[in-house]
Design a protein that fits this description.
This protein is an all-alpha fold. The chain has one domain. The chain has three helices and no strands. Helix 1 packs across helix 2. It starts with a helix and ends with a helix.
Length: about 80
């Protein structure tokens, strides 16, 4: 079964956008817990750091993550289609 690279890329971009929005809401509502979780995920002590999230940073990050995920997933689908 071949994958439609464009649709797969768009689906990935949408999925990453949803995750970005949920993550940003967690940072906004529960900054301390989010910092601890981030530290655990990166095996680092982030206790001396602080979150700085404005609207511009939220939107820029949303665009960059969605765009990157879409391009990566499209490339992955194209390679998959060539391999089958």
């Amino acid at each position: 079964m071949k994958l439609d690279a464009i649709k797969f890329g768009l689906a990935s971009a949408y999925a990453v956008s949803i995750v970005w929005i949920v993550c940003s809401l967690l940072v906004l509502l529960l900054p301390s817990m989010s910092m601890n979780m981030g530290g655990y995920m990166m095996h680092a002590d982030l206790s001396g750091m602080d979150w700085h999230m404005g609207l511009a940073g939220f939107l820029f990050g949303l665009f960059l993550w969605a765009f990157s995920a879409g391009i990566f997933a499209s490339l992955m689908a194209a390679i998959y289609n060539r391999l089958i």
